[in-house]
Structure formats: C-alpha cells, structure tokens
Structure prediction request, 76 residues.
Amino acid sequence: MDNQVPAVLAQLLTPAEQEQVEWAAAVAGRPVDDFVRDAVLAAAADPLLAALDQAADRVAGVRDFSETAGHGYAAA
Prediction:
C-alpha cells in the first residue's frame, strides 16, 4: 500500500499536514492516492457548495431597487 502523499500534493501541504493525511489514510486502510482522490471528489460534490452557487446566482439576479421610483424607501 502506498503510504506517501503524492508529489503534487506534497507541494501544497506542510510536512505536518502530509503526516496528517498519511495517518488518516492508514486509519482508513486506504492507499494515500485513493484516500485523497475520494476526499477531493467528496468535497467537490458537497451539497453546500451547490447551495452557495445557487444563492450567488439568485443574489446576482436580484434587481437593484434602490434607484427605482416608488419603492417605498428613501434613496440613500
């Protein structure tokens, strides 16, 4: 079982973070490559990210009523 952090990931992580990933993979009984791949894909599929993206789209689509006459609010 490969228990070393992949080279590309080693460039992004501190030595302590690399040890943490290696330890977590060992506890899970998985090779580090598989463990990291699964973690990355799970994070990318996180429903919170989709919800944040939808919220951002809604906010971007909201019309700015501050300059519309008759909106009932005093202009700033």
Notes: The helical segments are 7-10, 15-28, 32-44, 47-61. The radius of gyration is 23 Å.
